[in-house]
Amino acid sequence: MSLAQLPLLEQFLLLQAALVLFLSFGLLSQTRLLAAIHAFAWQGALIAAVTLTVAIAGHSHHLYFSALLTLVLKAMLIPWMLHRLVRRLALERHTETLSHPALVSMVAVALVIFSYWVVVPIVAEELTFTRNIVAVSLAVVLIGLLMLVARQQAVAQVLGFMSMENGLFLAAVSATAGMPLVVELGVAFDVLVAMVLFGVFFFQIRDSIDSLDVDRLNRLTETEEETA
Amino acid sequence: MSALILTLLLPLVGALLLAFVTSVRWAGWLNLGIAVLTLTTALWLGWEVAEHEVIAGLHFRVDAFNVYLVVLTAFVGLTTAIFSRPYMRHVCANARVTPAGMRIYHSMYQTFMLTMLVALTTDNLGVLWVAVEGATLATVLLVSLYRTPEAVEAAWKYFILCGVGIALALFGTVLTYFAAQQVLADPTEGLTWSVLHAHAAALDPTVMRIAFVFLLVGYGTKVGLVPMHQWLPDAHSEGPTPMSAVLSGLLLNVALYAVVRLKMLVDGSLAATDTPHLAGALLMGFGLISFLVAGLFLHRQRDIKRMFSYSSIEHMGLMTFAFGLGGPLATFGALLHMLVHSLTKSAIFVTVGHAAHIAGTQSIDRIRGLIRTQPAVGWSLLLGVVAIAGFPPFGVFASEFLLLTATIQTQPWLSAALLGGLAVACAGLFRHVQPMVYGTPPEGQQPVEANMLPVMVHLGLVLWLGLAIPALLAGWLDRATGLIAGSHLL
């Protein structure tokens, strides 16, 4: 079954999911911190839109709530907190040069292909839609992971971490029509607490190495030198 | 049911109260008091489970498998609280931690206990995930408590690695939920473990196979399986010692518990396919690699806490291997090993905390002659290491012997790797411990005020378990074996 034969609703969801993936690529290659935070906020808003679409289509009340939750948390609160932290750390003009931008993008493309390869075994005919959406969300998760590896700046790493969570939300909402409410609230709470703790750590890291370039956190290694 | 509610409520109340107690003295006592009450209710819960087999309701479920871990968690929580009270006052008096830091410490200690108990008792895979992630969040500030550059680095590494790992586990959970929705009449029950277990045979094996890989990598990060173990030695060596004791003794166990619960689901789903033992094989592979690699890394450690954290990785690898092997004998051995490793390792970390205070450093090269400076600490360290290295008559010997027997029965050619690994690890431990215990103490090394009661109780219990397992406990373990492996041992 080709994608064009899917119901319009599912095509619309896939379009939104594709935009989420596109923003992941944007996040990955965006070197200006503030612009990256904005891209992240848009990604959160898109996830909320996906949730809303599923909610309207399925008349499911708890999904309206979770769409609202996602919008407030992912598109407003966390970007706002990051914005504030960046301003307090005086990093507004901070740009970071990726050491191998082309290579990183190619790896990201490879990850998307890998994600599709992973979900290929889910062959059942009627699952074309699910297969695509699971592959796209897995790709978003993996690109978030790549961002953690490729970026050296702590704030950018947190963005990668949070966009991984976005990928998970996307999978939960579109493939399974939302997790039970208890779980969703718990996950949202964990993400929020994690964000607060990340904020605390930015200051601790800056106090300890005078920068947020976490590549300089390299005191703990296995090849012990013991200079003292 | 009320015992369960109380067991969960006590640490919650404790965490909230301790956030506001400014006096370090009182906070230590209050922390201890709550730990005593938690252990009491946990024992009550154990008694209830012994009577009713299973207690379930409100998204919670306690059966033979998790009840003994609940009691163990509450027990280690209590003995570590006994140790932590004077230890942290000593640390605070040396101005390594601010009073505000002490408030965070005590509050997060109880929050950590809460997340451990919730993760163990919940019947909902989503709540399990939330609790395990909560445990990371509760402990990450404690790892950086001393605010040294090393501590901050360790905490950041811990945060990022465990955060990423656990995110992958959530992806696996979502996939499991997806598989469940295809077969369950009421899709909202798709994360309830007991329902999933009842319908395990109907779950789509392809989806479950993919899900398990994510779940294993995710929760395996928390277990400390190689190659996702990088956070573990750092977090253990840089955090305060009571934290190392509970991380090693409890957190790793709980993560392994999650893996085993999920393996039970996947085994049910894959039973009819051509790869029925896929989950077991994965566990065996990861477990054996962790066991061997950590044994080798033991040799080149310079930091005493780092060394024992590698020993934890080694033992977690052994247990993972045993659960992967399956069968009643290996499962019984692994369950027993979870228990004795937890008791021994937390005793060792408590002793190491005192040893580091005596020498004023964590560097192995500069800790010398403990047995002459303070015999109680020296002997405890020696006996603890004898126990953890698997010498009779301690309990670790008993469980490792069972595991080895099971390996010889089912996979004879792997027993060589197992024996070799045990020998390498034993040598690695003793080459470092021998000079620390027997060497010549540096000039002016003074004994410190040390409460060795927790250590003695733990080692006494491990000795007891090595000589004779009480019938009640053997019954618990045997029923848990029945749940996991499908048939009883005794």
How would you summarize what this structure contains?
The complex is a heterodimer of chains A (228) and B (490). By secondary structure, chain A is mainly alpha-helical.
Structural write-up:
The complex is a heterodimer of chains A (228) and B (490). Chain A has helices at 8-29, 33-58, 61-88, 101-119, 128-150, 154-176, 181-209. By secondary structure, chain A is mainly alpha-helical. Chain A has one domain. In chain A, helix 3 packs parallel to helix 7 and helix 6 (154-176) runs antiparallel to helix 7 (181-209). Chain A is globular, with a radius of gyration of 19 Å. The model of chain A has no long low-confidence stretch (mean pLDDT 84). With 490 residues, chain B is an all-alpha fold. Helix content of chain B is 78%, strand content 1%. Chain B is built from 19 helices and two strands. A two-stranded antiparallel ribbon of chain B has the order 1-2. Chain B starts with a helix and ends in a 5-residue tail after the last helix. The chains are: A mainly alpha (228), B mainly alpha (490).
